[in-house]
User: Fold these one by one.
Assistant:
Number 1:
Amino acid sequence: MNKKAFIFDLDGVIVDTAKYHFMAWQKIAQELGIEFTPEHNEDLKGVSRVRSLDIILELGKINASQEYKNKWLIQKNEDYLSYLVNMDQSEILPGVLPILQFLKEKNQAIALGSASKNARPILEKTGIIHYFDAIVDGNDVTKAKPDPEVFLEAAKLLNVAPENAIVFEDSIAGIQAANVANMTSVGIGEETILYEAKYIFKNFMYMDTSFIETMIKK
Ligand code: BG6
Ligand code: MG
């Protein structure tokens, strides 16, 4: 049995922050008169802050100077952070803690693989940072998902071959990144959106420990 790495995305997988990213972007889109729906938002999930703004501007066919872009990027992050001020354990998505606990009991390597530059403070606020043997976030990588850099880096830090890594993701870009990396992709969300994933669960409440056992023995 080879050593495995269990790599978790953050936003929308571990914590319920995907809605806050959406709210903050929607505010900017509204100010710019751009229609920005939950369907459009699927393309922003897992994607870096800078790329997300570009996607919104492309949607509105807006050509903006770097100065304006920087202003919106700062505004988005300030709004986003304002939603997180009172964040605590209650923001952890259902079923996540038991799975983290189970992986720890089974002595499995756990990593975070997130595009977010706010990942560490979020893990601290929610009191779960100690579960992670490695953390790779938006501050550590240059290429955004669907590029596999973030996951490859996480597996490398854990000394695990990519084919022995299991990735939990709620975004299309993240599933594609895991697949390109030759890792086992596990979609957390809707099958209609995450159909490229090897396995799909609506949320962690639908995943029992026997699935994890199978992954460990694989
Ligand atoms: C990803 C989110 O995890 O992080 C994206 O899915 C977000 O929506 C990206 O844009 C970057 O996050 P942050 O916190 O650095 O703006
Ligand atoms: Mg996500």
Number 2:
Amino acid sequence: MFETLPAKQPDAILKLMMAYREDPRTDKLDLGVGIYKDANGATPVMKAVKSAEGQLLEEQDTKAYVGPLGSPAFNQRMIETVFGSEADKSRIRSAQAPGGSGALRILADLITSARPDATIWVSDPTWPNHLPLLSAAGAKLATYPYYDADNSSVSFDAMIDALKAAKPGDIVLLHGCCHNPTGADLTHEQWDQVTQLLIDQSLMPFVDVAYQGFGDGLEEDAWAIRSMADKLPEMLIAASCSKNLGLYRERVGAALLVGRNAAEADTALANLSGLIRSNYSMPPDHGAHVVEMVLVDDSYNANWREELEAMRVRMISLRHAFSDALRRRTNSDRFDFIAHQKGMFSRLPLNAEQIEKLRADNGIYIVGDGRINVAGLPDEESDMDALAAAIAAVL
Ligand code: LMR
């Protein structure tokens, strides 16, 4: 049977992750895969997570199944984290999912079972795994332009023009904050315009929020979702705890949905539960259990928020230091945009050849489209300057 299968390559991010691991150089620099790194280049377990894990180890007295939708308390807390503690929860539902990707997939399954003819509109560019993930669920895909590479900013008019071609019932995948791979986010006014377009054309938002807390703050980064939920009848959200709780390998996320009313939200959740059951049956417990403990316990919660905020602030200061260093080294303002973009990523205006040269000559790993992980930038001024010099040299 296997002889019928085509040769298969991992995607650009996974490929780069493997190449970095295999590179024997000790002075290499990983600006590839989106994981937070501290000033020592490490990705430590967050303190509140570590404490909750210790407590869980002591106290947990069963490993019995959790059920397809996971823990009700976890789901409740995720709804509060994404929609705010004051939100009207009567028509919001949540299913615990194996990571943000698992949430995306089961929600895509829900879309294809409810509306097999709908097209999911995806930003160009987007996270490279969006397209295969959504296609694997059988979804029809189309793209809308999102990024103006010449000006390193959102190409908003082109985005709106493209979405005008969507037909009623189509779905629009949006990055709730910290756009991956560009770091270029919509302004509140632009979100309002997108929301109005969705209303006018009877389109449904499907929001991927994988970096809540990495942009403008935990509450601020949920602004667009909360605003849309107030105005639109229905909505889907894939939330991830990989980045903001540092639980990457534990696979924790939530598939959230907003229905027109409580009864329709319940029906949608029951269908989601059926799709989960026929796929992986039930989500893993450990990471989600820890998230639940961190969100429920006031002291863990405060500690987590503090650590997350410190990570966010550090990434902002790295953005400023990097754009300053590039301004000095290139004698131009063409990299100033890095200072003002949001979250973990920005896209450097470099071509494939320049990116490959940086890897080969300097051990600097950047995704092939120019995406850099801001958290991987060096804190030391001299190292930042050396990085800027290496980039200036390949321009
Ligand atoms: C990324 O964009 O680098 C992360 O979301 C990790 C991944 O799975 O691609």
Number 3:
Amino acid sequence: MVPLMFNVDLHTHSNISDGVLEPAALAGRARANGLEVWALTDHDELSGIGEARRLAREHGMRHVPGVEISISWAGQTIHILGLQINENHPPLVQGLERTRTGREPRAREMAAQLAAAGIEGSYEGALKYVGNPDLMTRTHFARYLIELGMFSKVHEVFRHYLVEGKPGYVEHHWATLAEAVSWIRGAGGLAVVAHPGRYKLSDLALNAMLDEFKQMGGAGLEVVTGSHRVDQYETYARLARSYGFLASSGSDFHAPGESRVDIGQLPPLPDNVTPVWHDWF
Ligand code: AMP
Ligand code: MN
Ligand code: MN
Ligand code: MN
């Protein structure tokens, strides 16, 4: 089963969303780390895929067209990865275009809240870190609060700001689970629930979400990811097995020194799961 032994990373971000590296620098870093199969999965955005495909070819890596879609489910934000998508499929393109338009007014509101909490100028401050004006995220605000010397790490910012109940959090309605899954499947892709261990959902609620996802034709669960602790890999491998989901693996790399796992530096999937890439090559 040699194909399963590839160095695979199916969850990475460039500065087209909230990563800091341009696609070319990301691809170079991936190759230097020995990556063989690469998906660029920017948030709600497809515009880097063409370049990622060219870069992958240039570096002798296999390329997987991907995206990470923000959805709202029972008041929570959940991320759904679309892998092996046709990035030109009109409902996917138009659906994501629609979800992106909410980001700018949301960012203004976040800045207003931060100003009320005594942090002035955060809209302009965050904008300095933005590579794509359509895609301002909380990560960009977090980097600005670090610049101000308030914190040293992005994950620390998210304990005190930008999350529910703290300054800078603006409730937002993203796409629905049904929309995201139908856009991805319509585009010929596989829908995968990203970092299931990161959501503030009870086991009961997570199971309800996964039941719905399965019913809609969802295909997989991210098991090994830089957004999970190592002790969570086995937990979500078991869950993938019990649902009959394929298992995915992706660093969720955003920036050197910022992300827990570097691009192309993932440990292997646990045994007894079927990798999402099992029949791709
Ligand atoms: P947004 O799409 O604007 O809501 O921003 C979400 C992004 O914030 C995610 O994609 C992560 O990159 C980042 N993020 C959210 N929570 C955390 C956390 N606890 N630690 C580090 N990054 C986080
Ligand atoms: Mn992100
Ligand atoms: Mn995510
Ligand atoms: Mn991500």
